[in-house]
Amino acid sequence: MKISVNWLKQYTDIDLKTDDLVHALETKVGAVEEVIDLSEKYKGIITAEIMSKKEHPDADKLAIYQLNIGGKEIQVVAGDKTLVAGDKVAYFAPGVKVPYNAHPEKYDGVVSKISLRGVESEGMMASEIELDLGADHSKVMRLDPSVKAGESFAKLYDLDDVIIDIENKALANRGDLFGILGIARELSGIQGKPFSSPDWYAKPNIEENDQIPLKITNEIEAFCRRYIGFIMDNVTISESPTWLKSLLSKVGIRPINNVVDITNYMMYLTSQPLHAFDLDKVLAKSGKKETEILIRLAKNGETITTLDGKTVVLDDSTMVITDGNDPIAIAGVMGGLDTEIDNTTKRIIIESASFDRYNIRKTSMRLGLFTEAVTRYTKAQDPNQCLPTIAKTIELVKELAGGKEASKLYDNYIQPVTPKTLDINIQRLNTIIGTELSKDEVATILKNLEYSVEESDDMLHVAVPTFRQDVQIAEDLYEDIARHFGYNNIKLTLPSRSISPASVNQMYEFKRKLRGIVSGAGANEILTYNFIDSKVLGRYNINLDSAYKLKNPLSPELEYMRYSLLPSILEKVSFNMDQGYSKFILYEINKGHSKDEQDEEGLPYEREYLGAVVVNPDYKGNSYYSSKALLSKILKELNIKTYDLILLKDAQEGKSKWTDRYSKMLDVNKSAVLVINELYVGVVGQLSTNVSAKSKTPEYISMLELDLQTLLPLATDSYGYVEPSRYPKTVQDFCFEVILDTKYKDVHEMVERVVTDIDYIHVIQPLDIYHREGEEKKRVTIRLELQHRDRTLTQYDVTQLRGTLEKEIEKFKGKIV
Amino acid sequence: MEFKNQDIKNTYDKFNEDTNSLPLKELTAKYLGRNSLVKELLAKIKNIPDDQKKEYGQQANELSRYIEEKLEQISNTPIFQGTKEYIDPTAPFDINQNNSSEVYPKGLEGTKNPLTQEMDRVLDIFKQMGFDIIESRQLDDDYHMFETLNIPKGHPARDIWDTFWTEEGLIPPAHTSTMQNRVMKTAGQPPVRCVIPGMCYRNEATDASHEHTLFQIEGVYVDKNISVGDMLGTIKTYLEAFFQTKLEIKVQPAYFPFTEPDMEFVISCPFCKKTGCKVCKYSGWMELMGCGEINPFVLREAGIDPEVYSGFAWGFGLDRLVMVKNGIQDVRRFRSGDLNFLKQF
């Protein structure tokens, strides 16, 4: 929102220098985006008078002018041959920089003394575009005849001004601050001065008559809370006076003609958008004898050509202003082209209305139309401001366009907004903000902003003027008070609390611990997106049915929400290999959401997973074992000593979600489900050859995924410590020959049981599993490191042990060799 | 298989290609469904000259049968061909492959993601200040994401252009504030001192400084007589601990529907100590986070009486901070899975 300091000064004194003013705005209103010192922009530009004109001897399109620039005469050559003696123009002397460079390809914007076809030209006369006051560059801009030569152009046109642009985002809830009056009021308060709204704002006065009948029907009072319409005739459309053109240009609004400029001027002043229709065009369009305006919702498929020349298709949620039949404006957004004000306009209908902000925003976004009116209507606007705004507009139309009042004032305002009363407890205010303001200080701040304040005990009863639609609860007043007191003046304190420690978030600490374990094991932690591509899931044969689908994804690659991590991690493998990394482990700890799982709130269960992919080309055996080795490390660190791994092909469907999810992605003969205490905790495995080929992933890759909510309670801090013995260790290797199908686990557990029974301190280490091609048996070699607590172990002990082991292994149809 | 008709042959080739990339459901819809390619082929028979109609029809049917069989195969095979043997999953290494030193890849240097590392650091500081940690949800409902935060239905902030929605109307949250109501309700009655870390999702096109997925950290503090002064003091204390240097602070008015008064918290640039650098765009100041006193509506909705209690909340993003701290130029690197990036941490 661009504000002109000179314009503000018309409504409040500003005793601050520019820097202090900007600082005050930044700290008490909102972030300032830009500060433009216009006097810099228009520096050195002076007025001049044409004294005489001569034809250029060598150029048909040029003329030579003698200019009086105030006590001095100079010569300028120009392409505009229509100037005559006595014309007043704006003059750029050599060295002056033009406010707007219309030909950046020809020069850098700094005027110089040049020779045009052999004739010297000392400087340049300004066109409207070069003065950044409009779009016309076809001729030199004529100034008012009463202007004297040699005067400062900036001063004359109120361009020694500073323009401050406040970030719109900071004003998001302040509908009143999109008008100069509102900003002036704030600045007044900031300077500690009381503000009074101008008379025409506080007490609007309109003269109505019966000249032209005006019928207005509002069919959508729920969306259009107030509609004021008024007719003026005898209007002469012309250029606006320079003060108005200059004012609008300064704040970024293009001047068009006097009536349109007046409506824009008033909107910018009060934040109340207005619209003017050409009455005769409305009648011509409707074909009716009498002027009619009907406000309704559009019908599906209805169209309108808007002021910018585009044809827009409407639907039944859009508010439209119609001529009784067809739309002549998209209400609150943009007017129609065929009822626009132009040079032929003689009679106008002025509209000042209040529209539902949510509806306007929806319409604006759907149609892609973002106008100054939309900016204002999408904030809460005060319906009461419609009347003073149109009253002042009528005055201006009379003054600048010769118009005359020509109808009754039509004002449809069924449920007027009345001032709200809020109570402030001073103690509470000071407690909440952290200040020590007295009742009087608070009352003064509020009264300066035009609140009405009554005092009683330590309460203030505040009547909120309706132009502050953003103030609905006492806390909104706290904000006004705190802001004007100055947020940066508030003393910094710290709340006190008991010394009991914050509660521990078990899952968070668990995940942190896991990260330490897995990164410590040589893996690199990655983060990937929760959104995934159906093509990726298809590549890994992952079922889409359980995945949540987005209605509005950023792209088709981000359409589904994943319920497991492995596909996303697998996708990161090949490009890393392309970069030369041949051996690595990637892992991620993150959440997955499945349609099959809900929590106590009935929302998708936020399941936490650890997923890891191991790329180990060096191992010649099945890659499953590389991931299993990682799993073993993890489980050891978590002190989980007892667990089982069941081949995926044997794990019952339905009981294990891992089977349901991954049996088509993983090789079910070379992948297993992790089971601890009968709970299905995770899966370890390698891709099936089919999926490996489809996804172009090497076969030496393996992976694991663990369900952390199930794993967490199984982890323990108990290390199972055993007091070491001071007696020497004995190391014995045993080779068990068992049938091929025997699980290693069974052999290991048997050995463990045996040495535990005889209470030997032990370390059991698998050495080898050997199988000769064609044979039905395999040989499992295990190394035992043994110690007795109270003595040195003897050969006899070893023989006894061997005997026990032999007996036990026979139960597995095996023997010791 | 040989097909004479070019259309039929093309469809056959395309199908074989697609079996490598499309999931079963899509394959079935594309080739055998209502408006499928096979149906198209069969419909085209009327354009075939009469003497070739019979052959065309036979070939189309042959293709249709082939596709049906193939799809049947794919849906019925949980076990894929090529691996007849099964392994002993309980063994520490494979048969005849006892080189256990190579079972597990050797010589790897593990790393943690810089984002999670920084998150741990941030949360450690808050833990020391007495804040509980509750992680934010990654999929939530409309009520928590908007309604409990004083953003009723129809309010501009809800617009479907800002957030992602699932078909069921669930939302990957655009802000960690989605948890405010829950953490307050879980605490029962104040004091509530809670920090909420989590992923947030914004429907925004990505580039070097914008991502659709970000880390955010929210804070909530509710007790008796908690003031704006307390809020500013608490945030400053945390930031000075985080940047390990004294800081100057200033606040600017801002607007959030769930806080009142609300402001933007700005600090003197900790990287150049206010002298001006690339990080703070030579201004000497860094805008860090939004904060404010919790709107009484939000408190009431969580069962806390705003006449008795008050509190403040704040929210800031972690990604940008980690980027400027380490000189990372592109925010997308965090989630790239690129070892060239990851190994540096």
UniProtKB/TrEMBL annotation, chain A:
Pfam families: B3_4 (PF03483), B5 (PF03484), FDX-ACB (PF03147), tRNA_bind (PF01588), tRNA_synthFbeta (PF17759)
SUPFAM superfamilies linked to this entry: Anticodon-binding domain of PheRS, Class II aaRS and biotin synthetases, Nucleic acid-binding proteins, PheT/TilS domain, Putative DNA-binding domain
Gene Ontology biological process terms, A to Z: phenylalanyl-tRNA aminoacylation
EC number: 6.1.1.20
PROSITE patterns: B5, FDX_ACB, TRBD
Cofactor(s) named in the record: Mg(2+)
Cited SMART domains: B3_4, B5, FDX-ACB
GO cellular component labels: phenylalanine-tRNA ligase complex
Sequence positions that bind Mg(2+): D470, D476, E479, D480
Reaction(s) the record says it catalyses: tRNA(Phe) + L-phenylalanine + ATP = L-phenylalanyl-tRNA(Phe) + AMP + diphosphate + H(+)
Residue intervals of the TRNA-binding domain: 39-154
Principal location: cytoplasm
Keywords of the record: Aminoacyl-tRNA synthetase, ATP-binding, Cytoplasm, Ligase, Magnesium, Metal-binding, Nucleotide-binding, Protein biosynthesis, RNA-binding, tRNA-binding
Domain FDX-ACB, residue spans: 725-817
Molecular-function GO terms, alphabetical: ATP binding; magnesium ion binding; phenylalanine-tRNA ligase activity; tRNA binding
Localisation per UniProt entry: Cytoplasm
Domain B5, chain residue ranges per copy: 417-492
Comment on bound cofactor: Binds 2 magnesium ions per tetramer.
Gene3D superfamilies: 3.30.56.10, Bira Bifunctional Protein, Domain 2 (3.30.930.10), Ferrodoxin-fold anticodon-binding domain (3.30.70.380), Nucleic acid-binding proteins (2.40.50.140), Phenylalanyl-trna Synthetase, Chain B, domain 3 (3.50.40.10)
PANTHER family named among the record's database cross-references: PHENYLALANINE--TRNA LIGASE BETA SUBUNIT, PHENYLALANYL-TRNA SYNTHETASE BETA CHAIN AND LEUCINE-RICH REPEAT-CONTAINING PROTEIN 47
Family: Belongs to the phenylalanyl-tRNA synthetase beta subunit family. Type 1 subfamily.
Subunit (UniProt): Tetramer of two alpha and two beta subunits.
Name this protein carries in UniProt: Phenylalanine--tRNA ligase beta subunit
Organism annotation: candidate division WS6 bacterium GW2011_GWF2_39_15
Name of the coding gene: pheT
From TrEMBL, chain B:
Cellular component terms (Gene Ontology): cytoplasm
Catalyzed reactions: tRNA(Phe) + L-phenylalanine + ATP = L-phenylalanyl-tRNA(Phe) + AMP + diphosphate + H(+)
One Pfam family hit: tRNA-synt_2d
Entry keyword set: Aminoacyl-tRNA synthetase, ATP-binding, Ligase, Nucleotide-binding, Protein biosynthesis
A GO biological-process term: phenylalanyl-tRNA aminoacylation
Aminoacyl-transfer RNA synthetases class-II family profile domain sequence ranges: 191-324
Nuclease among keywords: no
PROSITE patterns, alphabetized: AA_TRNA_LIGASE_II
Any coiled-coil regions, as ranges: none
PANTHER family hit by this protein: PHENYLALANINE--TRNA LIGASE, MITOCHONDRIAL, PHENYLALANYL-TRNA SYNTHETASE
Protein name: phenylalanine--tRNA ligase
Lineage, uppermost ranks: Bacteria, Candidatus Dojkabacteria
